[in-house]
Every structure is written in structure tokens, then in C-alpha cells.
């Protein structure tokens, strides 16, 4: 596009440094550094995975060679992304012969902290944390670590607790991929609607990139902002977006919608289609089978979403936890690589998440947090 300069990622990194944000993650370690078992010598070559032959010969550590009780403490379970993430956790824990106990706080941080205390008091073998904030969870997490219960957290700010591994989807890259695509699609100018809610670690990170984006593209103007996280987020967003469309009724009033959560994108897409305003383009973050159906509908305004496989997130998080239980070193931070899934790159026939490896370069199962003994453990419980 004529108005888009070719520098992108470098300017983003520089701008992030200049913003002076605190509590930022250092660069994520490579998949290789996340997979080395403690049983290897320090100078042994690191490998992201193990061949089937090597895996079957690897001794299963005694700490994981028994049925383990794993707790998953979630802030919420809204939408299909959360459902597919949970499925990934269940799948991996089951393959390792473990028992998964799920605690859902329904968006209540106080309830989430109480669930964490319950899991600790029940002396579970390991704890997975899904979202939440350190202000509510840090005392409980510190108590778990002190009690010798390993903890791996996803999408939160618990990085101040020593011994906890925090994984995420690399929210800065997710946001920049989607926003860059939005800017290119509207030639770097036009009015946009921003659907966002604060109070969640990944949302706060994505918003930092959005603020830089507005400075990078001064001809793109935000004309409306709304958003809330509720048990019916997609429906509530649809109603709110419908009100925005009535406030800006003319073609050209709105060029695009930035929705950095797929529940927001679903609601906006449905409102735009119902109003016959499909000239408005929607760009989002996160992806599920339901989202893919909406993106592939005829005349769908949802043009692209930056995402990682939610089920794969659950599998990787679970593997890190088992590595911790086995006494292996795990990184303090780990970010899964996101991908941009564009409507124009998908085939005419409907596809689901498992099909995306054929159409999105790099999409697929992560080989992070794989130790040589894991295949043997899975085979034992097959």
C-alpha cells in the first residue's frame, strides 16, 4: 500500500522500549532451551524433541511414573477458545496417566484465589493456572511453591514468584500482526472501532501495542471504544456494536474494527452482517473452530485473526508442569509463536483448526517442553 512504510517489527520493538513499560518479559527462550531434561549433562546438545526410538529407551522419572493429581485453576471459561484450551490440557494430562481437577472461578478473582487454596490444601501434585492476576493469586502461588507443588501459569503476571514458569502467546506479536494487517487493508487511513477491556494481563499487553499503532498510523482514528468480559461476551458485544453502527450509519463512517479477543470479534462480525454493513472489516486475536466458520461465511467482514492453537497451549503448559514435577529445569518465561490466519488464504470449503497446517505456514503442534521420557510415559498409559 502506498501509505504504508515497510518498517514494522523493528519500529515496534524500539517503541516498546521507549514506552518504559515495567514488568515486561525478556525474550522468550527457544523451544530447545525449554526441553532439556535435567538428566542430561550441562554441555549435552539440546534437542526440541526426541525420536520414538530414543523416547522408548529413556527411563521415566519416578516422580511422574505414577498417577498424578493435577489442578487447573481458571479465571473463566468463556467461549470456544477456552473450551479448546481446556481440551488440550485434558488430552495431555490423560496421556500421561494423570487425573485433572478443574476449578473455574467464573471471572471472580477472589473465588479463583480460594480455588487455589483448595488445590494446595488437597496436596495436588501440580497446579496449572489459566489467567488471573498476581494481586489476587501471588500469596497462594508462593504458598504452593513453598509446599513443593510446581506451578505453571498461562496469560498472567505471576512472573515475580521464583520457580514459576509463565507462558503466553506472545501478546505483543499477536497484536502487531493483526494491527499491521488492519492498516494495510485500509491503506493506512480511516475511522476504526476498538473493542477492549482492561484488567487482564494479555489485554493490557495488547493495548500497549495498540497505543503505539495509533502513533505509527496518524491517519487512522479511533471513533468509538467499548468492551466488557461477561458470561455472554459475544452477545453483549453484538448489541453494543449494533448501537455503534446506528450512531455511524453511513458507508465510510467506519473502516474497520479492532477486536483483540475472539469473543469481541464474533459479536462485532454478527452485528455488522445483520446490519448489512459488510464493507467494515474486522480484525481479531485468537481462533477456534467456531471462529473459522464465521471467517469463512460468504461476505464475512472478519478478515483475519492472529492466533496460536488454544489446544496446543494447554498441551505445552501441561508438559512444562510434568517437567517440573520430574525435577527438570524449565524456563521462567516461554512464548508460543503466533500466526496470522487470513480469510483470503483459506480454501472455499469449510476447514477446522486441525486443517490449518495445510494453509498457514508454521501452524501445528509445538515441540516445546518435550523430554525423551514423555513418549514412553504416554505409551505406558495408551
TrEMBL record:
One of its GO terms (molecular function) is carbohydrate binding. The keyword Signal applies. One of its GO terms (cellular component) is outer membrane-bounded periplasmic space. Its main location: other. The keyword Electron transport does not apply. PROSITE patterns: PROKAR_LIPOPROTEIN. Pfam families: Peripla_BP_4. Residues 71-328 form the Periplasmic binding protein domain. Residues 30-56 have a biased composition (Low complexity). Keywords: Signal. Residues 1-24 form the signal peptide. SUPFAM superfamilies: Periplasmic binding protein-like I (SSF53822). It comes from the Bacteria. Residues 24-56 are annotated as: Disordered. It is found in: Cell envelope. Belongs to the bacterial solute-binding protein 2 family. This is LacI family transcriptional regulator. It comes from Brevibacillus aydinogluensis.
Amino acid at each position: 500500500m502506498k501509505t504504508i512504510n515497510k518498517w514494522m517489527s523493528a519500529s515496534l520493538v524500539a517503541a516498546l522500549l521507549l514506552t518504559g513499560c515495567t514488568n515486561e518479559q525478556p525474550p522468550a527462550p527457544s523451544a530447545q532451551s525449554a526441553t532439556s531434561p535435567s538428566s542430561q549433562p550441562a554441555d549435552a546438545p539440546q534437542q526440541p524433541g526426541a525420536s520414538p526410538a530414543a523416547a522408548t529407551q529413556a527411563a521415566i522419572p519416578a516422580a511422574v511414573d505414577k498417577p498424578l493429581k493435577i489442578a487447573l485453576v481458571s479465571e473463566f471459561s468463556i467461549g470456544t477458545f477456552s473450551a479448546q484450551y481446556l481440551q488440550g490440557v485434558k488430552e495431555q494430562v490423560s496421556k500421561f496417566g494423570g487425573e485433572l481437577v478443574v476449578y473455574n472461578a467464573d471471572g471472580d478473582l477472589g473465588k479463583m484465589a480460594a480455588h487455589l487454596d483448595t488445590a494446595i490444601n488437597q496436596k495436588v501434585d501440580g497446579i496449572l493456572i489459566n489467567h488471573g492476576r498476581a494481586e489476587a493469586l501471588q500469596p497462594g502461588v508462593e504458598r504452593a511453591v513453598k509446599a513443593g507443588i510446581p506451578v505453571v501459569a498461562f496469560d498472567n503476571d505471576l512472573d515475580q514468584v521464583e520457580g514459576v514458569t509463565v507462558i503466553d502467546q506472545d501478546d505483543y506479536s499477536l497484536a502487531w500482526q493483526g494491527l499491521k494487517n488492519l492498516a494495510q487493508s485500509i491503506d493506512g487511513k480511516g475511522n476504526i472501532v476498538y473493542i477492549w477491556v482492561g484488567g487482564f494481563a494479555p489485554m493490557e499487553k495488547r493495548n500497549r501495542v495498540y497505543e503505539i499503532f495509533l502513533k505509527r498510523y496518524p491517519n487512522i482514528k479511533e471513533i468509538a471504544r467499548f468492551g466488557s468480559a461477561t458470561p455472554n461476551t459475544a452477545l453483549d458485544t453484538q448489541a453494543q456494536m449494533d448501537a455503534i453502527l446506528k450512531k455511524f450509519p453511513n458507508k465510510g463512517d467506519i473502516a474497520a474494527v479492532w477486536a483483540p479477543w475472539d469473543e469481541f470479534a464474533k459479536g462485532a462480525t454478527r452485528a455488522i452482517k445483520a446490519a448489512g454493513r459488510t464493507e467494515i472489516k474486522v480484525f481479531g486475536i485468537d481462533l477456534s473452530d467456531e471462529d473459522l466458520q464465521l471467517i469463512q461465511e460468504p461476505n464475512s467482514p472478519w478478515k483475519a485473526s492472529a492466533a496460536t492453537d488454544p489446544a496446543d497451549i494447554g498441551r505445552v503448559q501441561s508438559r512444562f508442569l510434568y517437567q517440573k514435577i520430574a525435577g527438570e529445569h524449565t524456563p521462567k518465561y516461554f512464548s508460543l509463536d503466533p500466526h496470522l490466519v487470513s480469510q483470503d488464504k483459506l480454501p472455499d470449503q469449510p476447514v477446522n483448526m486441525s486443517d490449518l497446517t495445510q494453509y498457514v505456514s508454521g501452524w501445528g503442534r509445538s515441540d516445546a517442553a518435550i523430554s525423551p521420557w514423555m513418549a514412553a510415559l504416554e505409551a505406558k498409559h495408551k
